[in-house]
Amino acid sequence: MLLVVILPVVIFLLNRVLAAVERIRGATDQILSGGVALVGELGGVPEALATTDRTVNEVAVGAVRYAGSVARLLG
Fold first, then answer.
1. What is the dihedral of CA 26, 29, 34, 40, to 10 degrees?
2. Could you give the CA distance from residue 7 to residue 4 in angstroms, rounded to a whole number?
3. Hey, is 42 helix, strand or coil?
4. Domain-by-domain residue ranges, the chain?
5. How far is CA 61 from CA 51, 58, 73, in A?
6. Per residue in 9-56, pLDDT tens?
7. List of E strands, 1-75
8. Element (H, E) at 65
């Protein structure tokens, strides 16, 4: 009697756990493929960062020159 009652409950719970595991596996596969695609798009990032650094440096130099000129005019 115990086997007739408990075995179907165990099988039902096991099926639910296995279904959840399959959904998780599918989600992780999608995440992995998206990550691999993203890595392919990041090839130019170092060059873009170097350009950004140069631009920021040029703007900073220009801002310091401008502030110095304004200070001389006002002082």
1. -160
2. 6
3. coil
4. 1-42, 44-75
5. 15, 5, 19
6. 999 999 999 999 999 999 999 999 999 999 888 888 999 999 999 999
7. none
8. helix 45-74
